[in-house]
Design goal:
With 133 residues, the chain is of the alpha+beta class. It is built from six helices and five strands, in the order βαααβαβαββα.
């Protein structure tokens, strides 16, 4: 059975988000709790390009962080369509650890970090990834 854990860095991101955007924080927290309790949704976190085109009824989009995934880092991102539609561009960045059958949320980050591997948020995510692996 797959599991979902929240890394301390992502927990801090969520706490910070509560201070700046309660609606986005509440949505992300509820979404993660829903995913955590549903094996089908946990499985969905491993389907690259799931929800890419926002079909009716789809709550989110899943994608590999291809630049790093191609370098052997099993990193993914999740974006919530409801937040996107309201102009709130937050990304949930997570790792999958096959040996543990576990997803680890490593960051809740603004889209503006643009997945640039030199960006401080990316560097923090990579450090967290190395910490759990």
């Amino acid at each position: 059975m797959l599991q979902l854990f929240i890394h301390i860095d992502a927990q801090q991101d969520l706490e910070d988000l509560w201070e700046h955007d309660e609606d986005a924080a509440a949505y992300i927290e509820a979404m993660l709790e829903e995913i955590k309790g549903d094996q089908r949704l946990l499985d969905d976190l491993l389907i690259h390009d799931l929800g890419k085109y926002k079909l009716p009824g789809q709550q989110y989009s899943v994608s590999k962080w291809l630049r790093l995934w191609n370098r052997g880092k099993d990193l993914w991102r999740l974006k919530a369509w409801e937040l996107e539609d309201s102009g709130k561009k937050w990304r949930v960045v997570y790792a999958y650890i096959p040996s543990q059958a576990a997803h680890y949320v490593l960051a809740i980050a603004p889209r503006e970090f643009n997945y640039d591997t030199d960006h401080p948020i990316s560097q923090r995510i990579l450090a967290a990834y190395d910490d759990i692996y």
